[in-house]
Amino acid sequence: MANKYFSSVLKSLLLLLHLVFLSKQHVDSASIVKFLPGFEGPLPFELETGYIGIGEEEEVQLFYYFIKSERNPKEDPLILWLTGGPGCSSISGLLFENGPLTMKLDVYNGTLPSLVSTTYSWTKTSSMIFLDQPVGTGFSYSRTQQFNKPSDSGEAKRIHEFLQKWLGKHQEFSSNPFYVAGDSYSGLVVPATVQEISKGNYECCNPPINLQGYVLGNPLTDYAIDSNSRIPFAHGMALISDELYESLKKTCKGEYTNVHPRNTQCLKFIEEFNKCTNRILQQLILDPLCETETPDCYIYRYLLTTYWANDATVREALQINKESIGEWVRCYRTIPYDNDIKSSMPYHVNNSISGYRSLIYSGDHDLEVPYLGTQAWIRSLNYSIIDDWRPWMIKNQIAGYTRTYANKMTFATIKGGGHTIEFKPEEASIMFQRWINGQPL
């Protein structure tokens, strides 16, 4: 009887040890992915997925997709891509903005949605890491209960730690020129991350990261400047009348977001403004506003991606830890998070002083973070202009406008573009390739 009992205990212990071993395997794990469900044949590029553990106990497991440059990975730049939100998966960048695959827009019939190759991938000339951050975003997860909420400034530190550990495991990329890139909300996190890496290069970390600069699209930069630019933008785009705009300017005095409750006139006119614009798609004012994910609607691709990323065969191919998350969501809108950077302008200043290049671009039909606000904060930095406002061209057609400043900052608009480059990926790719190769736009 005793032998049976000890045998049973031994089996249980062995099973427990096996489970511990399996869970440990996924700490700082990396897998080469040669096939992806939904894509026909082997992938025409090199994809690696994995987790990097962050923190003393590595309780935070940040998930990434790494794609090698299709040109010369030994020497080409290495780009870290952060999607905004906070809480939006980096799959948004990979499948909609600048990756080598995208969703095939077939009507969903209950089978696995298909993937197809793109022509506009930034991986044609750069290696790219698409990172799910903060913890809880995409496939990133925590092995213990989180007591400290992620924050803008905290993420800059975590991302720096991620990079040090990632490069420690991929030392062949440690000397490649390195850039941080992202759009939307990451306009607050990217400049802080650049400063954190720069500081680390001087203070703590060997070998240093070969940081060269950063890229930002329609970036949230300063809450007050960006939000107050929406009404002038709406007026310039003929969404509100001259009379309403003049009344708003007169009664609100340029402050349209933190209006004093006693300023009833201003509040009344803002209500009128909202009536004029609440049926406009803020991310791209030219497109129809879709409230349901129907096949003729732009956001249908988001629904297809949700079906794809929640498929068991896809998760297996990506080597997702089965215990990590339940349902994958593209954007975790209620993610616990402390928005502690109200303006990233001081970081831009410090990064310029440190000599880093930057490309700031704006889709010029975005009402969410309008180009007017981006131009305003860049102008307030008072850098001298070395290449004044001019069109930049693709095949003898105007693709947007650009201006370059003495602090190595280039500003560009993408004509007809929206809040993210998923609306104009071909044009954005050409703009990026020229800039990253050191050519004028």
Describe the structure.
- By secondary structure, this protein is α/β, with parallel strands linked by helices.
- It is built from 13 helices and 14 strands.
- The strands form two sheets. Strands 1, 2, 3, 4, 7, 8, 9, 10, 11, 12, 13 and 14 form a twelve-stranded mixed sheet that branches. Strands 5-6 form a two-stranded antiparallel sheet.
- α7 packs antiparallel against α8.
- About 5% of the residues have low confidence.
What is the structure about, briefly put?
The chain is an alpha/beta fold and 441 residues long.
- Going by CATH, the architecture of the largest domain would be 3-Layer(aba) Sandwich
**Residue windows where pLDDT falls under 50 for at least 5 positions:** 9-27
What's the CATH C level of the largest domain? Alpha Beta
Report the count of strand segments.
14
Question: How many domain modules?
Answer: 2
| Rg value | 23 Å
Counting helices, strands and paired strands, the structural category is alpha/beta
Order of helices and strands: HEEEEHEEEEHEHEHHHHHHHEHEEEH
Shape: globular
Classify the fold: give the CATH topology of the largest domain.
Rossmann fold
Strand content: 15-25%
Helix fraction by DSSP (H/I, runs of at least 4): 25-40%
Mean pLDDT: 91
User: Based on the structure, what is the oligomeric state of the protein chains?
Assistant: single chain
Calculate the terminal CA-CA distance, rounded to whole Å: 81 Å
Organism: Arabidopsis thaliana (Mouse-ear cress)
EC number: 3.4.16.-
Signal peptide: 1-29
Family: Belongs to the peptidase S10 family.
